[in-house]
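Hey L., structure's done. Input below.
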Amino acid sequence: MIERKIINQRMKEFQIEEYISENLKNSGHSHTRVQRTPLGEKIIIYTSRPGMIVGRKGQNIKKLTFTLKKMFEMENPQIEIAEVPNVNLDAQIVAERIALSLERFGSARFKGIAHKALQDVMNSGALGVEIHISGKVPSQRAKSWRFYQGYLKKCGDIALTGVNSAYATAKLKSGIVGIQISIMPSTTELPDHVVVSDTPITQEEVTPLSVPGQKSKSGQKKEEKPKAAKRPSRAKKKESGEEKHEKPVAEAPQPVEGGDHVKAD
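Output:
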């Protein structure tokens, strides 16, 4: 039961975000976040044009609040408008801007529009940007054009968490054109980034090896290591009686007087 409630709540939040993004199209809408509070559900709308979403005397906000309350059975929805700090680093806003430019000027100037968007994003401090435009541009046969600049991660966890991606569509006379954009902002911390410190690290002075008893450059006498005990030599072993006993050599037999020599057995 708990799992079903969580899934239903997430589905409801997704439907609210989708509905707001469709109604606030072409008004600088970036993304929507839904938060649950004790007083009710709080809906934060991030946009680059807060005045257009609020409307004259708050008419648009009142209308949107009434619609959300009726469609999604919300008790007390609270809508808050938040302005995007840097418009050129938001992928969704840049994609919608390219789509509006294509609808306004046509597909003949799509290269100039894409390069202008690349330059604006890179001038805002992004590490890299990539734009894909697919559709019947500029001819009647569908093609895919890729514009890129800078450094962009495409694999690994950093490609999912550190790269902002968005998708938008432009409705032209020749058909629908898709715009897909990926931006890696300067705030992304790469795993292979190395920072070199300017402050030097103090290390202990290392002196070269010297003869025992010799003074070093600093004027201090080095400590002499105790000498290992030497083994006693063979001569000293003989004197101390530690030498192994040698086998006695048999003496030759002496001749007997007045007789033949007797051989020893």
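The chain has a mean pLDDT of 79. The longest strand covers residues 29-37.

-- N.
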